Amino acid sequence: MSSLEGGAFDGWEIDPDAVMWVRGVDYIAGWRDATAASGELDSALRLVGVDMEGARLRAATAADGSGVVRFELSAAVAREVAALAREAAAQCRKAG
What is the residue-wise DSSP string for 69-89? Predict the structure, then answer.
């Protein structure tokens, strides 16, 4: 679910917790969980019509081994997602 534009570290700051591995922590399980979650998020966003060409999802792990999904949006896609969220909230208020 990731796409690299330019170099592998473009736009990313080094996070010491992200590069330090601790013996005994299962980072692979966390990464697999994040990979599955990023796939679910990608599918859900596409289902509601979000143009994912302006978005990037990346599976990663936190220092404790838990899965993390990094979500990067262009300004246009961020506005699109915000509009969809407002629309969904308005529909919930009407129904509720």
Answer: EEEEE-HHHHHHHHHHHHHHH
| Residue 57, beta-bridge partner list | 71
d(CA 20, CA 30): 15
Which residues make beta-bridge pairs with 58?
Answer: 70
Per-residue pLDDT of the chain (96 residues; tens, 9 = 90+): 444 444 554 555 555 555 666 778 888 999 999 999 999 999 999 998 898 998 999 999 998 899 999 999 999 999 999 999 999 899 999 997
Count of CB atoms within 10 A of residue 3's CB? 11
Q: Which of 70, 64, 68 is nearest to 9 (CA)?
A: 70
